[in-house]
Amino acid sequence: MNFELETLDLSAASKEKCDALIVLITSSFKPGKDALSVLVAQALKAGDLENKAGKALLLYRPTGLACVRAVLVNGGDGSANEVSKAVKTAVLAVKAGNVKKLVICFATLPQAALLRAAVTAVAEASYVFTTTKSKPEGRVIQRVVMGVSHPAGLKPVFDRAVAAVAGIEFAKEWANRPANYATPALLAGAARSLAKLPNIKCEVLGPKQVKKLGMGSFMAVAQGSEEPLRFIVLRYDGALKSEAPTVLVGKGITFDSGGISIKPAADMDEMKFDMSGAASVLGVFKVLAELKPAINVIGLIPACENLLDGRSIKPGDVVTSMSGQTIEILNTDAEGRLVLCDALTYAERFKPRAVVDIATLTGACVVALGAVRSGLFSANDELAAALMSAGETSLDLCWRLPLDDDYAEGLKTDFADVANVAGRAGGAITAAKFLQRFTAKFPWAHLDIAGTAWKSGKAKGATGRPVALLLEYLLTSAK
Ligand code: BES
Ligand code: MN
Ligand code: ZN
């Protein structure tokens, strides 16, 4: 899918030949004398286009317009969130048709945020996963023209939004793949393929090297599977070597059965998404290569399966992490923190300016925040604020949860330095408290994306979150 930015007012839009024309109207809409304005004004007056955010009117071969289909859609107050919803509604309305060229026309002067929201929304509404179909029917929409009346200054924002879409879709692709199409080795292959892009390097460690590093906790999770683990190290070098990097750590459990503490059968297929954190890191690197910001970024991905087997870890087993801390594994389904803790210790060697881990870590976070906001944890107010605001700007929201030491009480055990689970209460926070033990050497934040990385139900699939948030955070740090 190709995005283009064009100068297009309403009268030019009415003459634009295309398979579908989406006309976005906000409450500040002032009709002109052109055919499109007249149409919109009539539809509003007649009540056929409700003056309410998200309401749309679909027209086929409307007289006076050069398009085959037109969707008049109400973007409400013109906030980025409402514009995003309106664009998705409109794209879904014409998606079933044979729409190859789509034109989106902003009836009111778009601000940068709206253009970005619209680009992201078109991509999301038209996305199709085809990798495992025998007769793939991909995306029908080929060209998307974003028509604005005054494009001055919008080009950089537009380019960034288009680049971000590529990263979001890369993350979706890998997260959507079933576990047999996204093994740790295949995930490492995806990372290696990124190293063909400018300024990116990739190193992949296997079981032997990981053992040598002393990653006893990560290895313990992997030992119940026939698929050998991979530890993926990506680097993006956009600034001087002396510039401290930001490290992104992505949970890469390519399938989470729960292990001996096995999960219920219902919806267990969704645990193929348990490497969404890793996928988001891959997506971010793809965009960095494209936008080439003046920063350094490291990506770390501990990748393995969590399965059951004669060699699997058992509840009560004690393992020694790379940090030297011993861990009593009371629940083998709390495996994310076990692979992340060793990756966090590994991150120390980069003397990072900040480390952000991204993980589908806890069902408790889904209960707490649902699918709207990711959980954000950090003892560093500045880092937390930067991530929070990156989320607001990119419409990839998160919400800060506490890290009081009292939450760590339940992790105490007589059999090791720490247990891998506490009670059910505050489960997202106790998981974060576990991770925090491995982050003494750098500013650290944790994003629990268990509720936001994918959608359940009929429209099941990866969302590509939080690629947009991470990118916004990194690009802002470059300024
Ligand atoms: N991958 C899951 C977390 C998860 C659960 C993500 C549901 C999305 C939806 C994680 O490895 C896990 O199993 N966590 C356990 C922790 C518990 C054993 C303390 C959980 O949340 O149930
Ligand atoms: Mn688990
Ligand atoms: Zn998991």
Describe this protein's structure:
- With 479 residues, the chain is of the alpha/beta class.
- It has 2 domains: 2-146, Leucine Aminopeptidase, subunit E, domain 1, CATH 3.40.220.10; 166-478, Zn peptidases (Aminopeptidase).
- Helix content is 35%, strand content 22%.
- It has 14 helices and 20 strands.
- The protein has helices at residues 10-14, 35-46, 80-95, 112-126, 155-176, 184-194, 207-213, 216-222, 276-291, 336-347, 363-369, 381-394, 427-436, 467-478, and strands at residues 2-7, 18-25, 56-60, 67-74, 101-106, 143-148, 200-205, 230-237, 246-250, 252-256, 296-306, 318-320, 326-328, 354-359, 374-378, 398-400, 418-419, 444-448, 454-455, 461-462.
- The strands form 4 sheets. Strands 7, 8, 9, 10, 11, 14, 15, 16 and 18 form a 9-stranded mixed sheet that branches. A 6-stranded mixed sheet has the order 1-6-5-2-4-3.
- Strand 3 and strand 4 (67-74) form a beta hairpin.
- Helix 5 (155-176) packs antiparallel against helix 9 (276-291) and helix 10 (336-347) runs parallel beside helix 13 (427-436).
- It starts with a strand and ends with a helix.
- It binds ligand BES, manganese (II) ion and zinc ion.
- Residues 253, 256, 274, 335-336 line the site of zinc ion.
